[in-house]
Amino acid sequence: MLRHGESEWNDSNRFAGWYDINLSPQGELDAIKAGQSLLEIGFAPTVVHTSLMKRTAKTANLILEQLDRLWIPVRRSWRLNERHYGGLTGLDKEACMAQYGREQVQLWRRSYAIRPPPMPEGHPWNPNVDPRYGHLAPDVLPKTESLADVVVRLLPYWYVDRTRKLTAVANGTV
Predict the structure, then answer these.
(1) Distance CA 77, CA 150 (A)
(2) 11 with 30: CB under 8 angstroms?
(3) In this predicted model, what pLDDT tens digit does every residue of 9-44 receive, in sequence order?
(4) Would you say residue 174 has pLDDT above 50?
(5) Annotated catalytic residue 4
(6) 8 is catalytic
(7) Once rounded to an integer, what is the mean pLDDT over residues 68-86?
């Protein structure tokens, strides 16, 4: 399991979550180095799973390029997206701490069940209007998420993929 490389908003200390921000140049370099490190230890994945974020897709592609494995299947799902930071999306983390207090921001970030404030309609960085989520029912798209919400969102993907893998093994296709 790998996290995406540094994004432009990581570099500027902003909450990204579901907003589809690019990798920074450092993030691209980090992904290339990760791929080279994996190559050195002989790692040879047979499938890759990523979110729908371009920062994760780019990270995966850069790593696979280093491994000379761009040909393997890549499965993408919105269920693998980062946590949705709601109304904090796009805000500078230090400015949030100044506005809401360090303790409150840490609760939103590190608590398992406490959600940040929801993203208001018309928010300039609202990812829920993105066409990649157009196939989802509006009530499925979060306006904010706690870590517990992320687990609930992830589990259907986890179980479907495990079932797919177990079926392939039983059929002798893996």
Answers:
(1) 13
(2) no
(3) 887 899 999 999 999 999 999 999 999 999 999 999
(4) no
(5) yes
(6) no
(7) 95
* CA–CA separation, 66 and 88 (whole Å): 35
d(CA 88, CA 123) in angstroms, rounded, equals 10
Tokens of 28: 């691209």
Measured N-to-C along each axis, helices 93-100 and 102-110 cross at an angle, to the nearest 10 degrees, of 120
Residue spans of the domains in the chain: they are 8-171
Class of domain 8-171: alpha beta
How many Cα atoms within 13 Å fall on the side-chain side of residue 24? Answer: 12
How much is the pLDDT for 1? Answer: 72
Half-sphere exposure of 155 (CA within 13 A, CB side): 6
Query: What distance in Å separates the CA atoms of residue 157 and residue 22, rounded to the nearest whole number?
Result: 25
168 or 50: which carries more pLDDT confidence?
Answer: 50
Dist CA 128 CA 148 (whole Å) = 20
| Active-site residue, selected from the candidate residues 6, 49, 82, 145 | 82
User: Which residues sit opposite 7 in a β-bridge?
Assistant: 23
Question: Active site residue: 4, 6, 49, 145, which one?
Answer: 4
Per residue in 105-156, pLDDT tens? 999 999 999 999 999 989 988 888 899 999 999 889 999 999 999 999 999 9
